[in-house]
Amino acid sequence: MPRTISTGDGRDALAAVATGSAARAELATAVRYLLQLLVEKAPGNSVEVRVPPFGAVQVVEGPRHTRGTPPNVIETDAATWIALATGRTTWADAVTAGTVHASGVRANLDGLLPLRP
């Protein structure tokens, strides 16, 4: 089981990212904290959300994926993920800008974002 990031540590990391003073470890913590919140909000195994190199989670109820490349994949960079999860950008804007790559009929987080860190 992955280590749980406390609310305090997650918010501290997000604050460091917001000020532009985040070290790589703080950026990683912020990304993982927001992925953790997404898992709590939308548990399941039908969509894989990847934020390389910091983390990947499976979320959203539906058919479980067990082998090979999942049929529903969302991939983005750390800055875009943080902007999406905190409401600084919208799902539609990120997809249009090409900073989110989503494949599969269930690969859409529009109704789940922003999160409330």
Topology (elements, then pairings):
Layout: H1 7-19, H2 24-41, E1 47-51, E2 55-59, E3 73-76, H3 78-86, H4 91-97, E4 100-103
Parallel strand pairs: 1-3
Antiparallel strand pairs: 1-2, 3-4
Give your account of this protein's structure.
By secondary structure, the chain is an alpha+beta fold. It is 40% helix and 15% strand. The protein has four helices and four strands. It has a four-stranded mixed β-sheet with strand order 2-1-3-4. Helix 1 packs across helix 2 and helix 2 packs across helix 3. The protein is globular. The two termini are 21 Å apart. The mean pLDDT is 93.
Summarize this, please?
The protein has 117 residues and is of the alpha+beta class.
Secondary-structure element string: HHEEEHHE
pLDDT average, as an integer?
Answer: 93
Helix segment tally: 4
Estimated helix fraction: 40-55%
Overall shape: globular
Structural class: alpha+beta
The description of the largest β-sheet is: 4 strands, mixed
Low-confidence stretches: none
Total DSSP E strands? 4
| Overall radius of gyration | 14 Å
Q: Measure the end-to-end span.
A: 21 Å
User: What is the quaternary state of this protein?
Assistant: single chain
Strand content: 15-25%
**What order do the strands of the largest sheet run in, or round the barrel if closed?**
2-1-3-4
